[in-house]
Design a protein that fits this description.
With 571 residues, the protein is of the alpha+beta class. The protein is elongated and about 230 Å long. It has a 7-stranded mixed β-sheet, with no helix packed on it. It has 4 domains: 103 residues, no CATH class; 123 residues, no CATH class; 134 residues, no CATH class; 99 residues.
Length: 571
């Protein structure tokens, strides 16, 4: 039946409006709702994927934010990007810079609490130039992963670390009294080869020592043993010895930054390398290592009456040029009752420098009981034999003094004095002090002389001599004597010429006579008399020559005779 066939017949039999047909509706899922549902699922999956692949957010704290920019500054590990800075802001008190950064997902599990962050920028220092690549690429943050519990908040380093965490080697702790020129980055040497660097320097908890953390690279860390010794190297050392001036110079880096050297004695038995973090003593110089080997020390006191200017703590105590100890304290002792001033000098004598080990052992066995009571029997014996202390000048250039111990047998007999804080060794005045004392004694003697009376008498004598010299009679006598000497000189010259002519004639005569006599019999009486005459004539000629020579040297003898002016005056 169709809808057209169903008709509603009215009472009049005419057609009217159709009746509503009620049809039961079926229930089901509409495809229209599928589209938003799928879209929601896709969005949720994308959000999950984005969140699951997104790295963690970390917070970094730096002292300053030079070069840091939000959205631009990268965080790198081994030159590869592992994050980016999102925000840069101040801390609430404006003292620090807070940096928020988004890290990559793959590095999340490596962010331990010991991870380190620092800003890489161009740096110029004595140890070299770093960060030059940032001139082109810009400033970035370098990351070094560390172990420990997972962390998201870190404090950035003010400076890049000297040694990376993955660098093979060991760290050691050195203890010293004074830091000196040692600083961060100072090199570590082993036999002039750089094998490490200084990491940090800080004051110890007792505020009396300085802790220096160093790092020795592998494989050189195996050379550090428990018996190794570390000492400071200044890079420049000048010493004056018997051979002249000796100059030693290390590398320029050691000269600028200071340095540390270490060595291991070959005489000791080799052992295992020292553990990481082992502690050693840092000596001021290599010579101080030998000083530390002397452990047996006896303290003594010496009193010096004179000035001790130039005597400093650490000055050597020597015996005939060999060091046996050092000065440990120089004080001032004033007796208020008498006004006497003395300078007590405390010294430490090192027994190992004086006696060999076997004798020290024997000495302890023999005198151990007396030494326990505070006695020093060996020093007592030497003081009785004349051992005394004396100040001497070690350098004329600097005026530094040192204490010399030596024997003075002529000194008054004395003994080692007990009763004070330390046994007292007698002293003798130094060379300068003795000279000053002698000079003072001489001045005292001169002060006691009647200098005023002597001066008056000396002045009178000089006045009398002046009157005598300037007297007219004396001047007239001098003029007369001068004229007489001129006459004598002329007479001597005339006599010399006459004597010379006479000698010439005599020579000619003798020659003629010799020729004549050669023809005569030598035994004849005439020849004998003639020979005697010739001898007398030769003697007379010699006398005339001697007289001429004497008158030439002493013409005044014509006035005063052969004896001189004094003999002539007496006559």
């Amino acid at each position: 039946m169709s809808d057209n066939d169903i008709r509603h017949q009215g009472p009049a039999g005419n057609d009217s409006l159709p009746d509503a047909v009620i049809v039961e509706k079926r229930h089901g899922f509409s495809m229209v709702w599928l589209i938003p549902l799928v879209a929601a699922l896709i969005g949720a999956w994308l959000a999950y994927k984005t969140l699951s692949e997104q790295g963690p957010t970390i917070t970094l704290t730096f002292r300053e934010g030079t070069g840091l920019e939000a959205g631009k500054t990268k965080i790198k590990y081994k030159a590869l990007e592992v994050g980016v800075v999102e925000t840069v802001r101040f801390s609430p008190d404006l003292s620090d810079v807070i940096v928020t950064a988004r890290m990559h997902k793959e590095v999340e599990r490596h962010l331990g609490e010991h991870s380190r962050f620092w800003v890489v920028r161009p740096r110029l220092g004595f140890s070299g130039v770093s960060g030059l690549e940032t001139v082109v690429s810009g400033t970035y943050i370098e990351l070094e992963f560390g172990d420990g519990n997972p962390a998201r908040v870190f404090t950035g380093l003010a400076q890049p670390p000297i040694v990376r965490a993955d660098t093979p080697g060991r760290r050691y702790l050195l203890l010293t009294d004074q830091l000196g020129s040692i600083q961060r980055g100072s090199p570590i040497y082993f036999r002039d080869i750089q094998v490490g660097e200084v990491l940090t320097t800080q004051l110890a908890e007792d505020n009396r020592n300085v802790l220096v953390q160093v790092f020795v690279n592998a494989p050189y860390d195996r050379l550090v043993r428990d018996q190794s010794r570390f000492w400071k190297t200044s890079g420049f050392e000048v010493s004056l010895g018997a051979q002249g001036i000796d100059v030693k110079m290390e590398s320029l880096l050691s000269l600028l930054l200071g340095g540390i050297a270490f060595d291991t004695s070959t005489h000791d038995e080799p052992g295992a390398p020292s553990r990481d973090g082992a502690q050693f003593r840092l000596y001021d110089s290599f010579a101080d290592i030998a000083e530390s080997s002397y452990t047996r020390r006896d303290s003594y006191m010496m009193y010096f009456e004179g000035s001790v200017r130039g005597l400093n703590v650490g000055a050597p105590v020597e015996v005939r040029g060999l060091k046996i100890g050092k000065v440990t304290e120089v004080k001032l002792d004033i007796d208020l009752k008498t006004g006497n001033i003395r300078v007590p000098v405390i010294v430490d004598l090192e027994l190992e420098r004086i006696l060999p080990p076997d004798m020290i052992k024997q000495f302890d066995e023999t005198y151990g009981a007396l030494r326990t009571e505070g006695r020093r029997p060996g020093m007592e014996h030497m003081v009785k034999r004349g051992l005394r202390g004396q100040l001497k000048t070690g350098s004329l250039l600097t005026g530094q003094l040192f204490v010399e111990l030596d024997f003075y047998p002529d000194s008054p007999p004395l003994e080692l004095v007990y009763g004070g804080p330390y046994p007292e060794i007698p002293t003798v005045p130094g060379a300068l002090e003795a000279f000053q004392k002698t000079a003072v004694d001489i001045l005292d003697t001169l002060r006691k002389l009647p200098l005023e009376q002597i001066a008056h008498e000396l002045l009178g004598t000089m006045r009398g001599a002046n009157r005598l010299v300037n007297a007219p009679e004396w001047r007239a006598a001098i003029r007369s004597l001068d004229a007489t000497l001129k006459d004598v000189r002329m007479l001597a010259q005339t006599a010399d010429r006459q004597v010379a002519a006479l000698a010439t004639d005599a020579g000619k005569t003798l020659s003629t006579a010799r020729k004549t006599l050669e023809s005569v019999d030598p035994e004849a009486p005439l020849m004998v008399d003639l020979a005697n005459t010739l001898e007398e004539l030769a003697a007379a000629a010699r006398s005339i020559r001697a007289l001429s020579d004497h008158l030439e040297r002493h013409p005044e003898s014509l006035l005063y005779g052969k004896g001189g002016p004094e003999t002539g005056a007496r006559k």
